[in-house]
Amino acid sequence: MISFLFALSITAWGYYQATHRIGELEANDRIDDNDFELCNEDKVAEYYGMNTDYIGGKKAIKNRILSELQFLDFKESGLLTYRFVVNCKGEIGRFRLKATNKDLQKTEVNSKNILEIEKELRALKNWNPAINKSGYTYDSYYVLNFKIENSKIVDIF
Amino acid sequence: MKKIFKILKILLTVLFTSYSIFVILFLFFSDKEKRYDFASHLQGDYLSQSMFEILKLQNPQNDEIYFEQSVPYNKRGFYKEGFQLLNKAVELKPKMHLGYRGYMKLRFLRDFKGALKDFNRLDSLTPNFVDSPWGEDIDFLMGEAYFGLEKYDKAITHFGKSIENQGEGWVDIQAFVYTGLSEYKLGNFDEAKIQFEKALSQSKYTVEAHLGLAKIYLETGDLTKGKLHLDKAEKYFSYKRNDPYNEYLNEVYESDIVTLRSSGT
């Protein structure tokens, strides 16, 4: 019985370890849009290698929202790194933020600034979802950085 | 019947115990190289990270483990975690990892000063040797960092060094493009044109150089040449420089062609 339970535990641990990856974003009803859905929860690709992108690239994102965010002030220089999902239909959601200072240590950002940035992100509609050679589209993760210097957002990439 | 159950029980116990022992042997005691390759192959999976943790416990001074473990974190935007590991790799073997860390600071974080600090330190550790962080010439990368800092004179100096060290026929064509862009930013249009032309003499498909020339010709009133280079930029657009992970500082888009075309009509 003990050997069975031990083998079962190892198998369950191995299965969990082999089926989960760094950076998975699970739905959170408290903070996510209720109408945002993934096409396949079990198969979310990474942005690289699958050509997930905004039409016109990150430059288009920067051109569209950088000036809109200039009224925001930040306490510390560093990076705001958003990771989110571009679903197979080209819709975006599940925004998760990592804020780091210049030494790449975790830092806090006031909630008003976060809301304003996410409002601009949500307004971005021209996404190319991840696509394979056969033209089949997938859900995928995307990473977008906001660089903060001298209290302001100075770059988006 | 009771005996059969007893035999079955023993068999199953042996089977489950053997299975558990096999898994434990693999995780903790099999060949380190094989486990490292296994973890590298499963990049980003929790299993890969757990294997790296075990390997680090057993080989705390092995820089390669920290380096490899950092990769998926940085690719996926977890820079705090990724750079903690990368910093450890640099601490253990600076000559081996400073270049990569500088490259990551340049391309993934756009931390231009931090990147230059790493490149300069690497350069000082390897006198009389031209380093190639992550396969790219160190002077090219330093030029790119200075370009990011808008220190165009210094950018030109380093791209020039890269061209000199690698040779005109072997250097990354973008060294000419960046030099042209830097000269343009300094207002030296003639020198900028020479550099863009050099890029095109290496490859007529260099979209970035066509756009650089188009911009100068349109701004200086030579609409015919401006249009010619815009047409070529459009024709060869699929050859533009891009990277699956990050946007280059001089990356061009179709919208640039549209904008220039409308400015020249």
Could you characterize what this model shows?
The complex is a heterodimer of chains A (157) and B (265). With 157 residues, chain A is of the alpha+beta class. The longest helix of chain A has 18 residues, at 2-19. Chain A has one domain (25-156). Chain A has helices at 2-19, 57-65, 111-122; strands at 44-45, 53-54, 78-86, 92-101, 127-128, 130-131, 137-149, 152-156. Chain A contains three helices and eight strands. Helices cover 25% and strands 29% of the residues of chain A. Chain B is elongated, with a radius of gyration of 26 Å. The longest helix of chain B is centred in the first third of the chain and has 28 residues, at 2-29. In chain B, 42% of the residues are buried. With 265 residues, chain B is an all-alpha fold. The model of chain B has no long low-confidence stretch (mean pLDDT 96). Chain B is 74% helix and 0% strand. Chain B has a domain at 28-92: Tetratricopeptide repeat domain (Serine Threonine Protein Phosphatase 5, Tetratricopeptide repeat, Alpha Horseshoe), CATH 1.25.40. Chain B starts with a helix and ends with a helix. The A-B interface holds A 3-4, 6-7, 10, 14, 16-18, 20-23, 46-49, 51, 56-60, 79, 81-83, 98, 100, 102, 104-106, 141, 143, 145, 147, 155, 157 and B 12-13, 16-17, 19-20, 23-24, 42, 44-47, 49-50, 72-73, 75-80, 83-84, 109-111, 244-247, 251, 253-255.
Order of helices and strands of chain B: HHHHHHHHHHHHHH
Counted beta strands of chain A? 8
Q: N-to-C terminal Cα separation of chain A, in Å?
A: 55 Å
Question: Main β-sheet of chain B, in a few words?
Answer: none
Distance between the termini of chain B: 96 Å
Fraction in beta strands of chain B: under 5%
Oligomer: heterodimer
Going by CATH, the homologous superfamily of the domain at 28-92 in chain B would be Tetratricopeptide repeat domain
Strand content of chain A: 25-35%
- Backbone structural class of chain B: mainly alpha
CATH class of the domain at 28-92 in chain B: Mainly Alpha
Number of domains of chain A: 1
Instruction: Supply the CATH architecture of the domain at 28-92 in chain B.
Output: Alpha Horseshoe
Low-pLDDT regions of chain A: none
Largest interface: A-B, 39 and 36 residues
Per DSSP E runs of 2 or more residues, the count of β-strands of chain B stands at 0
Radius of gyration of chain A: 19 Å
- Average pLDDT number of chain A: 95
Transmembrane segments (chain B): 7-29
InterPro entries (chain B): TPR-like_helical_dom_sf, TPR_rpt, Ycf3
Protein name (chain B): TPR repeat-containing protein
Pfam family, one (chain B): TPR_8
